[in-house]
Amino acid sequence: MGYKAHFSETCDEEAPQLITHVETTRAGINDEQVLPAIQAGLADKHLLPDQHLVDAGYVDAANLLQSQHQYGVDLLGPVRHNYWWQADTEYDVTHFCIDWQARTVTCPHGQISSSWTPAQDGKGHPVIKIKFSQTDCKVCPGRTSCTGQTRRTLTLQPPERMQALLAARNRESTDAFKESYRHRAGIEGTHSQGTRTMGLRRSRYFGLPKTHLSHVAIATAINIVHLMSWLRGEAPAQTRTSPFKKVMQSAA
């Protein structure tokens, strides 16, 4: 049975970067499912930040909303990309007009959906299944760019969740996002340090409680190293440049 360590770390440039919380889970648990426990642990210690920087695995609509509503925390991280092939066309969901009150969706060619069905996705989250008429889709000039089936279908999240995701995606393209998110680079270095020098990748024990204790011990050792480096005035090491990137830079 594999396990995964989730470290939370401060990122203040004027102070030492220290691990403030350790969460240990079984390896098969998705990161997005772990975030509520991480934030609850930080909140119990009064260490939950106003802006919580996370990687894409922790960001979904539910966590964006819960972070804001329950703790007043701005969850900042990349949103998973839209991997539907329509994302590269003018027929992805952002080009459809949604009327939440009338429970209808209008496609880019002005056709109105024929059904609106509340349902649940594979994770048990509420969604809305939208279908368009086969009669309308079969004669549509944009059908081959819109769907490979006889009619177009859409899966929508509830309006609040959908708006949260769209807002998060739009924010990713801003300079403010890049400036804030660059501070998260330190935790990647911390994980690398734990893996390369302290055996973080392998557990010496069986069972979740003992594995968690070993993760806490590793985090404590990392904190001591970081604190001593900070007291000596040593700046954190910069991200190493891979040999391939060095070759590309010299060739440019």
From TrEMBL:
Residue ranges constituting the Transposase DDE domain according to the UniProt record: 106-227
Among the Pfam families in the record, one is DDE_Tnp_1_6
Q: What is this protein called?
A: Transposase DDE domain-containing protein
